[in-house]
Amino acid sequence: AQTVTQSQPEMSVQEAETVTLSCTYDTSESDYYLFWYKQPPSRQMILVIRQEAYKQQNATENRFSVNFQKAAKSFSLKISDSQLGDAAMYFCAYHKVKTSYDKVIFGPGTSLSVIP
Amino acid sequence: NAGVTQTPKFQVLKTGQSMTLQCAQDMNHNSMYWYRQDPGMGLRLIYYSASEGTTDKGEVPNGYNVSRLNKREFSLRLESAAPSQTSVYFCASSDWSEQYFGPGTRLTVT
Question: How far is the C-alpha of A98 from the C-alpha of A32, rounded, in Å?
């Protein structure tokens, strides 16, 4: 069964600095999607970034980028120039493709604090 | 275009009471999901529906039932609420690219 692990329950970063959140996953599939979701105090889940496993190029979205290491089954999120609004829970998620259903597996989350 | 809507936003139940959480999406997605979120445990899948007329158990289905009423609506029912079901509940729908979440329901069972 697929699993997603986030080994850092809590992280903190100074405003304007860079922080990296870790995620590892376990799967025997070769084709899948990986996601980072953000959950601010408002509780709304927001997609931050998506990576397709067949693409070797790391995804980027403005200040957010990933380091996708397929062989190592690692998918870290880098946040550059951290802002106060980045403070939130961050969830790594795995989505198996080419199935009759779309079940997504979430990690336990990392709580990020941004220090002014 | 409202996305995914959930009602109610907050609910307090006594042990043994029943209730139904409602969810609707207007994005024409086939797949819909119910999750619960507890501190330190992330999101755990309760039930999901790959298409209208089908439902499947997720990781933590005990104590819950679901109905996929039509393509838009997917409800979650607690027949006899227990304190262990105190949680935040999220409904979601998805296409191939991402999951779209509702605002969540905070349920407290006393």
Answer: 8
